Amino acid sequence: MGVDPGVAMGEGAAAGPAIRRVAGRRGIQWVAAAWRDHLARDPLPWILTTLLWVALMAALGFVPLLGPLAQLLTGPALVAGFLLGAAAQARGEHFAVDHLFAALARPGQLLLLGALQGAAALLVLAGAGAAAAALLWGGALGPSAAALVLAAVVLFCLLALAAFWFAPARVALRGRTAWQALRDSLRAVAKNWLPLGLQGLALFALFLVALLPLGLGLLLWWPLAAASLYRAHDELFPQAPPPFPTASGDPP
Fold first, then answer.
1. Which helix (H) or strand (E) holds 110?
2. CA angle 89, 112, 79 (to 5 degrees)
3. Which of helix, strand or coil describes residue 140?
4. Cβ of 51: how many Cβ atoms within 10 Å?
5. For 174-205, how does the pLDDT look when each residue is reduced to its tens digit (9 = 90+)?
6. What is the DSSP string of 157-207?
């Protein structure tokens, strides 16, 4: 059904993977391809899976203490499930609702990603609190100190966003560890900031449109965003071919 999340495909643990640099227009084309090749092919399973994901997250939100923790830890694994479903479509298969839980078969590194996301969120909150404290009680230097802290927080948020952008895909689709995935994602974003920025702007514009019909458009927007993330990852991180011919002697 899905790619084995524990198997790396030609990407050594020591050396970083090859990363393509692509033209800026590819960011828009990834979104278009997500609709054409993924969502339009299997719209109902994508929508039902999104509904199930939302319902699951909402149900966990009602569980005191453990519910929010479970939301945090399982978030990357459930996102990876959408990506595994998109990968199955790329192989000619169909997207299915059970793809949502496919990455939970071997969740260790994805759970670690969830924990690291939580730690990053706590650092952001701490930085915002420090900026507020400097503004309120810092005296004459308070505004300047608060501005410096806020600038550091914004920079950290941008770096964290870049690091986590492709991290679930790196773990689930290519078998990287959590730390390797964060490093890979940072490198890819640094190398392709223009197409990824245009992709983000396109998705944000579509997000605003999706909010108009009582938010129901989000049932289409999230699958589109997930599939476009898969398309970007698939192009920026080319799979290395096997080092030897297949058993039949034909090239892979």
1. helix 108-137
2. 25
3. helix
4. 12
5. 999 999 999 999 999 999 999 999 999 999 99
6. HHHHHHHHHSHHHHHHHH---HHHHHHHHHHHHHHSHHHHHHHHHHHHHHH
